[in-house]
Automatic annotation (TrEMBL):
Protein name from the UniProt record: Cupin-like domain-containing protein
UniProt cross-references to Pfam families, sorted A to Z: Cupin_8
Organism name: Massilia norwichensis
Source taxon at top rank: Bacteria
Cross-referenced SMART domains: JmjC (SM00558)
Domain JmjC, chain residue ranges per copy: 118-275
């Protein structure tokens, strides 16, 4: 285990059903926290506490034949889904299969000390297990969250960040979360932005055996790391942009998570802006990059009324407050410029 001294803070939502008491302030938090027993009342959690077979059987009750995306790796990867040795590909392969077939495959490895790595990631709950959320759900105060399910054996998911806020509930098994604040980006040695295992850039550091000669700044990252181990029914809130490494510790693990953004749906992903900046600004001469840094500070990162006060409201165009119509117009302008 990594030498991490600080635990993710725990909050007490209170009440017989803590999930009904998550305040708006908690759901807008900018620091991570753990809520023990948030989903203790879920039948799925109760089944998982009974046995692996009971949890497996409970999931199958809702399965109606949909296929899922599965990641499969040889025993040699020790559950770590990652790149191959020279970063030209990956150390696993992906397949689409019936969920019951995946569960059968996992069952065959439960007693094996060197199991193949099996992982069903980010699958919409209502699609693959319709009806599961009727009795296994979290009240998020009306937020239009995407509920996903993650099923696997003893797997390790490299540190990465997500744009949405994330409430992750351990429904079966045990998981260890290792978190880093966004400002630790430079100390995590991030891999390619546009070629990665699951659409998100990941840290190249192997948390099970860090190579401090190759990644010396990772020692500094560890000074800012937080760790939490969760049992069935426990939940962790991971704010937008926080790096998190997730390790499943038992032969059968189920996690249900909820993603939502604190911004309107018409706003595009900032990742698109980053990729465009790589295309348009990174290779500029230093003086020009500095000039553009000031432009972004003025209009984006430190905007104030003084940046538009000299313009009448009808003439502010792209500088006016964003709404759905203006977002559509901006997107159209951008597409025209990119297609020239």
């Amino acid at each position: 285990m990594l030498p991490i001294a600080k635990q993710v803070r725990e909050v007490d939502a209170g009440g017989a059903r803590p999930s009904a008491n998550l305040s708006d302030a908690l759901l807008r938090a900018t620091e991570p926290y753990v809520v023990r027993g948030l989903a203790a009342h879920w039948p799925l959690v109760d089944a998982a506490r009974t046995s692996i077979d009971a949890a497996d059987a409970y999931l199958r009750r809702f399965y109606q034949g949909a296929t899922v995306g599965a990641m499969l790796g040889k025993p040699e990867i020790a559950g770590r889904f990652f790149y191959n040795a020279d970063l030209t590909g990956f150390n696993y392969y992906s397949a689409h299969a019936r969920l019951d077939a995946v569960l059968d495959e996992m069952k065959g490895y439960r007693e094996n000390p060197r199991p193949a790595a099996i992982y069903v990631g980010s699958t919409t709950v209502d699609t693959v297990l319709p009806g599961l959320r009727r009795d296994n759900d979290i009240d998020l105060g009306g937020r239009d969250a995407l509920a996903s399910i993650w099923i696997g054996n003893q797997t390790r998911i490299a540190a990465h960040y997500d744009l949405p806020d994330n409430l992750a509930v351990v429904a079966a098994g045990r998981r260890r979360f290792t978190l880093f604040p966004p400002e630790q980006l430079a100390n995590l040695y991030v891999g390619p932005l546009d070629f990665n295992p699951a659409g998100q850039a990941i840290s190249l550091v192997d948390f099970a055996a860090p190579d401090y000669d190759r990644f010396p700044r990772f020692r500094e990252a560890l000074q800012h790391a937080l760790v939490a181990e969760l049992e069935p029914g426990d939940a962790i809130f991971i704010p937008s942009m926080w790096w998190h490494h997730v390790e499943a510790l038992t032969p059968f693990n189920v996690l249900v998570n909820y993603w939502w953004r604190q911004s309107p749906e018409y706003m595009d992903s900032p990742t698109n802006a980053l990729m465009l900046a790589l295309l348009t600004m990174r290779e500029l001469p230093p003086a020009q990059r500095s000039a553009w840094q000031e432009v972004f500070r003025h209009y984006i990162f430190e905007p104030g009324e003084d940046s538009v006060a000299h313009l009448p409201p009808h003439a502010r165009h792209a500088l006016a407050p964003l709404d759905e119509d203006r977002a559509r117009a901006l997107r159209g302008t951008l597409l025209k410029r990119l297609n020239r």
